[in-house]
Amino acid sequence: MGSTIMRAILSLTACLVAGFLISCAARPQKTGELRVLKAELDQARAERDMLRAKVEGMWDDFEEERGQWLDRSHALRTELGKLQDIGREKAMLQSRCDGLQNRYERLERWASDLARGYGPGIWVYSDDHQWPLYGRKPRDATVRGIVDELNAAHRRAGGPLLVLEGVDGGVATLGVTDALKLTTEMGSSGANCYIQTAVYSLTSLPDIDCVHFDFEEGDHAAPGKYCN
């Protein structure tokens, strides 16, 4: 029995020694694996830190872009509001303009009807009015007779004379003896008075609708067809 126990002890001792030797032999291998794993872990941590820094930088850029976008959006809304205000103001002004245009057209028709209601006449300007006023009935209610009476007044005032060039289809064509005086020396107001006096006087005749002036254009008057 004693020998059996001894053999068991020796066998156990042999197993322990064998296990210890195997463990010692495997330790360097495990240590190498641990070093590799630690290196991989360190590299993963470094990459994680780099990614974290990159994400933080991208977030900062995003916040900056977002702030700029919000500023632009606010500026755009402000400009849009101004445009809407301008649009409303334009609509109001357009409405007023249309109303004034309608009034002007009604007054123009009324003035034309009123002028024709006087019948043939010599129309003259007054210093207090911007448009000619009915002066008197012509002595000769024809185109030639009215042109002659107007020229008599122009001679007294030292102005250029009208030249009757013809009548065609309700349009009387007039030239001017001294167009340069009309277009440059009489001023805009004087030239307008000269032309409108002839237009109102001649269109007071039932068969004359317009007067066509034939002269070289200048600073204060232009040729063309004028109708009342």
Q: What is the compact description of this entry?
A:
The protein is an alpha+beta fold. It is built from four helices and six strands. Strands 3-4-5-6 form a four-stranded mixed β-sheet, covered by helices on one side. It has a two-stranded antiparallel sheet with strand order 1-2.
Q: Helical stretch count? A: 4
Q: Based on helices, strands and strand pairing, what is the structural class? A: alpha+beta
Total separate domains: 2
Helix content: 55-70%
**Helix-strand topology string:** HEEHEEHHEE
Please outline the major beta sheet.
Answer: 4 strands, mixed
Strand order of the largest sheet: 3-4-5-6
The proportion of strand residues reads 5-15%
Oligomerization: single chain
Rg (C-alpha, Å): 54 Å
Q: Any idea what the shape is?
A: rod-shaped
Question: What is the CA-CA span between the terminal residues?
Answer: 154 Å
Low-confidence stretches: none
Mean pLDDT across all amino acids: 83
Secondary structure tally: strands: 6
Describe what you observe in this structure.
The protein has 2 domains: 1-118; 119-227, GMP Synthetase, Chain A, domain 3. It is rod-shaped. The chain contains 4 helices and 6 strands, in the order αββαββααββ. The chain has 228 residues and is of the alpha+beta class. It has helices at 2-118, 143-157, 179-185, 187-202; strands spanning 122-124, 133-136, 162-168, 171-176, 210-214, 224-227. The strands form 2 sheets. A 4-stranded mixed beta sheet has the order 3-4-5-6, covered by helices on one side. A two-stranded antiparallel ribbon has the order 1-2. The longest helix has 117 residues, at 2-118. Helices cover 68% and strands 13% of the residues.
